[in-house]
Amino acid sequence: MRKTKKKENKFKKLTGKLHLWFGLLIGSIVFFISITGALYVFKDEIEGINRKEYIHHNEPDYQNKEKLNIRTLEKMVQQQVKEKYPVHWVNIPVDRSMSYQFFYFEHNQKAWHYFDEYPIYKSVYVNPYSGKVLQVYDEKNGFFNIVKMLHWSFLLNSAWGKWLTGIPVLIFVFMLISGIILWWPKNKAARKQRLWFKWKNIKNWKRKNYDLHNILGFYFSVFALIFSITGLFYAFFFIQAMIYVVFSGGKTQYPDFSHITTKAPIELRTETTLDKIAQKVETLYPNAYAFSIDLGNDHLDDHEHPNFDVYVKHLSYSYHKSSSLIFDENSGELLHTHDPKDKNLGEKMVAANYDIHVGAIFGLPTKIIAFIVSLLCASLPVTGFMIWYGRRKKTKTTT
């Protein structure tokens, strides 16, 4: 029995030292990542307020009018915006009262920092009935995108900058688990003290700080682990693979539809092929929120597209419920659909990862949780440092 207790004490001491050393090593990084994460949470809500006059085109009697075809709108956008780069894709809302969004987006993978890596990232709100550009937003230099890329890669090249954030978050996951181990009380009496704040007769700030670190850390550790692991999903492929394998019931092969490709001759492609595709999507998904169509132009990071894929977003606040459709890009014929009902649980979890990470999975309630947990994660390195500093100061005073 004594040997078991000694082993437990040694294990807890080692865990405590690692928790301390790692905390001092990555504390400031975790603080920074957590604060930028908290700032990003309500991006859609804030932008929705700031852009409300452009999200809806306000075209008079639009119900009785025909939209201009997509290629015509693309040309009109190019004429009005006058960018040297071609338009990349268009977001088409199913609600006819809403504006189209055309996007300029280029990715230079050889650049070493964010501002050169993305030469342009702009969104253009357009009235689909008149072709008038309502507003152009420079997303690349916008507040939320800079916050996102600070959070993601410290504004460095995303391919390797994500390692500089991913490794500290991986260590933070260990710290959350080790924190629970250190918190775990030896007996019932100790458990009562650690389950909630008992500050009635406590005036010492060190004790209050200690309780804040331990009690809040314990209660929010599960949420913090979820947000950390879903963040690691973007940094490490093995996390992506692990999530898919676990939730798909052991499947190791992600569904591959690259064999479904355009067969019709290019002569069948016309100015209205994309409109034919758009009409088909709207017919199939009349209750969807919006869908995206790549305009098929050449770009800086151009690579082989195995098929012409159209992404359908079913919900306004979340991406996890989505469909993927494959069309023949010459004839506009629908070749394949992949809806939420067709996906295994592993695919659904992969699709839901972003929404879980930013708290959008169930709308505003989960965003509020994400915001609070992000702030709490930012507080843990601060309260942890104060515990260490207080003990260190006490030791120096004693000696």
Automatic annotation (TrEMBL):
TM annotation in the entry: 20-42, 163-184, 216-247, 368-389
Matching InterPro entries: PepSY-ass_TM (IPR005625)
Coiled coil residues, start to end: none
Statement: the UniProt record of this protein carries the keyword Endoplasmic reticulum: no
Pfam families linked to this entry: PepSY_TM
Entry keyword DNA-binding: no
UniProtKB keywords: Membrane, Transmembrane, Transmembrane helix
Record's protein name: Uncharacterized iron-regulated membrane protein
Organism in which the protein naturally occurs: Paenimyroides marinum
